[in-house]
Amino acid sequence: MSAHFAAKRPFTVTLTILGVVLLGLWNLGRAAALYREQDLLLSLQMQPDPRLRLLIAAVWAVIFGGLAWAVWRRRPFSQKATPGLTALYAAGDLGLPFIFPAARLNQTGWLLTGVFYIIIILFMAWALNRPAANAYFKTEDTWTKK
């Protein structure tokens, strides 16, 4: 029996992991849909280029998968990286339609989407940096298994 005590994961951290996994799955689904409909979208000359959007979605799926793994494994950098990268994702997701005029017509709910992202980012920042979460991330077994 080990004398090492591992702090129990707070429920808010579990919710954050679930949210990050769902964002990763959303982007994985987006990448799969763009890949499947790539020929149609290319023939319609959609802007931005569907291949670029496919690449962006695949990269974000990998990033969110890595963030979920980092929070799960108690990596201290994930306390700041998770809300920060989610904010970067939100800025890109909301900003892309404003860069390309043809995509503006599809972005009628940008205000509601922006408020949703702000709520998610604030929750992640609070959930990962509150005192109970700090105890979870500051264990001896953060980097190595003994």
Give a description of the structure:
The structure is a single chain. By secondary structure, the protein is mainly α. The chain has one domain (11-135). Helices cover 71% and strands 0% of the residues. The chain is built from six helices and no strands. Helix 1 crosses helix 5 (110-129) and helix 3 (50-72) packs antiparallel against helix 4. The longest helix is centred in the first third of the chain and has 26 residues, at 11-36. It is elongated, with a radius of gyration of 18 Å. The mean pLDDT is 86.
Please outline what is shown here:
With 146 residues, the protein is mostly helical.
Q: Which stretches of 5+ consecutive residues score pLDDT under 50?
A: none
Cα gyration radius (Å): 18 Å
What level of helicity do the residues show? Answer: over 70%
**Element pattern in H and E:** HHHHHH
What is the distance, rounded to the nearest whole angstrom, between the alpha carbons of the first and last residues?
12 Å
